[in-house]
């Protein structure tokens, strides 16, 4: 298929427009060019120079860009407005309608060769796929967006890289997610590309995989750097996401009041921006905070609200993840039957490739509930399934805890050697304070 700026394509375009306006080749050519030149151009035997195209466009009464590319005047601006509309639709929780909008924009941007608009539409489709839990499609869309931006600067490619890292994280591929974040941060900082929004997006995103890998010191450092970068960012939605992510690192450090303050800031920004998905995630994180602080009644209230909001927006994967944390709170409140029923319901929506960490958490909790019922066989089955999922994901901290639970179960049932093996496995997964298995930390920005 010929490109829109090929000589043959431009030649046919010039001939069609000239004919529509009832002009002869001489009338189009004069006074700067000859009829023979116009004839050669329309036949596609010569590539017109920019001055020639500008002259012809003026004679035809159209803009230079419209003649050179075939795009109607103002078309790129119109696509930008429609992209913004689709992004607002996604923020409101209407993922399916947003995906339809992004798909139409992508097709039209491809037709007219608008690369930046293609990339943004693909980013939007990737975010829609994350919402529905279709992680394979999300990875593909973010990869395609990055490919479209192959000639752009690294800061411009960061949203696509962050999308890929998020999809791999949700699929349980923690190490690869951290690699994407860290290698990009290192390249940005070592080469002096200190774009505040790009850095803030990366430091905010890397906190969750750090935490799940047991790299708490590195998560805390990323949180501090994100907080320092926030005043330089001009994107309130990005700042709100930062506050929500930073809260998790603060909770792990026991900084409950600071975490609560960060979540309050995030919630207020999301309310102002009317971004309902992220507002639901704030309720989710606030429920987690109350659970860590032992206030299970308030934790249940926040998590039920988060689940209700996410379910209404058909954010299937996130809804299932919240349900697992709600089940943990229900169990702690003595509502074990309701918790078990909820866990069995969501396990059908989770897998090793889709929500691996929360699938493991569901099996772990079902194991604990089975132990409470004195059903050692069922407990062992759930613990072993959880162990397999966590080993695949490389979630060191959770692995150590699970090995302790499994070892205790073996010891209580008289299997001492099996218990010792489980304990040794857990000790092998426990990382030392302040270190990770990820290699040297990436270079830091000058703050």
Automatic annotation (TrEMBL):
Species name: Streptomyces akebiae
Q: Which intervals of the chain are annotated as region Disordered? A: 427-447
Q: Give the transmembrane ranges.
A: none
Q: Which domain of life is it from?
A: Bacteria
Q: CDD domains, from UniProt? A: HTH_XRE
UniProt name for this protein: Helix-turn-helix domain-containing protein
PROSITE patterns linked? HTH_CROC1 (PS50943)
SMART domains given in the database record: HTH_XRE, TPR
Q: Give the compositionally biased regions (Low complexity).
A: 431-441
Question: Where located?
Answer: Cytoplasm
Q: Which SUPFAM superfamilies match?
A: lambda repressor-like DNA-binding domains, TPR-like
Question: Which parts of the sequence belong to the HTH cro/C1-type domain?
Answer: 14-67
What Gene3D superfamilies does the entry give? Answer: lambda repressor-like DNA-binding domains, Tetratricopeptide repeat domain
Family, according to the entry, reads as follows: Belongs to the Rap family.
């Amino acid at each position: 298929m010929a490109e829109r700026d090929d000589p043959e394509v431009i030649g046919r375009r010039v001939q069609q427009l000239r004919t529509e306006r009832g002009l002869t080749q001489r009338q189009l050519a004069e006074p700067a060019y000859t009829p023979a030149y116009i004839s050669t151009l329309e036949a596609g035997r010569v590539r017109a120079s920019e001055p020639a195209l500008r002259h012809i466009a003026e004679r035809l009464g159209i803009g230079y860009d419209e003649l050179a590319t075939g795009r109607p005047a103002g078309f790129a601006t119109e696509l930008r407005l429609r992209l913004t509309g689709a992004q607002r639709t996604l923020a409101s929780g209407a993922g399916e309608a947003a995906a339809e909008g992004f798909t139409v924009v992508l097709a039209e941007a491809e037709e007219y060769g608008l690369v930046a608009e293609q990339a943004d539409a693909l980013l939007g489709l990737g975010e829609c796929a994350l919402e529905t839990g279709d992680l394979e499609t999300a990875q593909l869309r973010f990869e395609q967006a990055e490919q479209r931006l192959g000639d752009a600067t690294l800061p411009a490619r960061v949203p696509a890289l962050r999308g890929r890292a998020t999809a791999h994280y949700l699929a349980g591929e923690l190490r690869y997610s951290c690699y994407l974040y860290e290698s990009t941060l290192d390249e940005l900082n070592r080469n002096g590309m200190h774009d505040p929004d790009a850095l803030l997006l990366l430091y905010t995103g890397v906190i969750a995989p750090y935490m799940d890998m047991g790299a708490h010191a590195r998560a805390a450092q990323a949180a501090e750097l994100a907080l320092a970068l926030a005043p330089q960012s001009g994107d309130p939605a990005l700042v709100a996401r930062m506050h929500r992510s930073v809260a998790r690192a603060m909770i792990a450090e026991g900084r409950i009041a600071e975490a609560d303050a960060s979540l309050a800031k995030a919630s207020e920004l999301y309310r102002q921006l009317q971004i309902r998905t992220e507002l639901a995630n704030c309720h989710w994180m606030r429920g987690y905070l109350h659970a860590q602080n032992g206030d299970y009644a308030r934790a249940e209230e926040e998590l039920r609200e988060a689940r209700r909001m996410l379910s209404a927006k058909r954010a299937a994967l996130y809804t299932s993840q919240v349900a697992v944390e709600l089940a943990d709170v229900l169990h702690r409140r003595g509502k074990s039957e309701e918790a078990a029923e909820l866990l069995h319901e969501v396990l059908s929506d989770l897998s090793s490739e889709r929500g691996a960490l929360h699938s493991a958490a569901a099996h772990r909790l079902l194991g604990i509930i089975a132990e409470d019922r004195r059903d050692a066989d069922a407990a062992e089955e759930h613990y072993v399934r959880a162990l397999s999922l966590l080993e695949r994901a490389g979630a060191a901290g959770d692995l150590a805890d699970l090995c302790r639970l499994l070892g205790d179960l073996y010891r209580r049932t008289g299997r001492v050697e099996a218990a010792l093996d489980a304990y040794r496995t857990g000790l092998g997964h426990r990382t030392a304070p302040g270190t990770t298995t990820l290699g040297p930390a990436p270079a830091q920005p000058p703050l």
